[in-house]
Description:
Blueprint: E1 2-7, E2 20-23, E3 27-31, H1 40-44, E4 48-50, H2 56-59, H3 61-69, E5 77-81, H4 83-92, E6 113-117, E7 123-126, E8 129-135, E9 143-148, E10 153-156, H5 164-170, E11 176-182, H6 190-196, H7 201-208, E12 216-220, H8 227-237, E13 244-245, E14 251-253
Parallel strand pairs: 3-4, 4-5, 5-6, 10-11, 11-12, 12-13
Antiparallel strand pairs: 1-2, 1-14, 2-3, 7-8, 8-9, 9-10
Helix pairs in contact: 7-8
Amino acid sequence: MKLRVLGCSGGIGGDLRTTSFLLDQDVLIDAGTGVSELTLDELCAIDHIFVTHSHLDHIACIPMLLDSVWTMRDRPITIYAIDETLEMLKQHIFNWKIWPDFSEIPSALQPSMIYQQIELGKTVELGGRSITAVPANHVVPAVGYHLDSGAASLVFTGDTTTNDALWKVVNEIDNLRYLIIESAFSNSERELAVLSKHLCPSMLSVELAKFKLKAEVFITHLKPGELELTMREIEEDVPGIRPKMLLNNQVFDL
């Protein structure tokens, strides 16, 4: 099982792309602007999209992906998310005003897209791959994901702030190899981080003190223009663990 980073930035510009990961060839974890890295053939191979939450930087490419490939496929793409996120997609994106409703194209009986509700703690099994929603604490209903091949696993927190429920779950994973966690703001923007339910380095330090396992830690969702500053503050505020900055096209073997 391989997870490729398509986008991991909190914004765009130059080679920066917003959050999306490709699991093997057929699964997306979020679908931000990083999806634009894929070729048309690679886009056609996507069968499943797991969404953490409804914010645009995590869903931006779902509409364009569907529009690009629906005539080239003979089966629908399944969108997995908690019920609140699915409702937001239905009401605010696939509503025939912002974008056509691909759950009715080419027809309701043969849709290009179907919705699949998931629940916290419940695992979806896809060809030997286990994908489980884990708690997130954000300004809209949200989850992270635990990806498990059996041999090793990875947790992507999604967008979150202080989150004791997450660590209770994470610390019980006996084969955890990687943790991807956000730090969207620098310490000078701590008030904004609190208001928007993100993390900054000083808050991240408190959260990682709750992390009891020995796994590699990577930082995602850094804001353009603040990459070096935020990572420097993380190095100062989080001694011992030495988190690394997540990079486009990085590949994790599980």
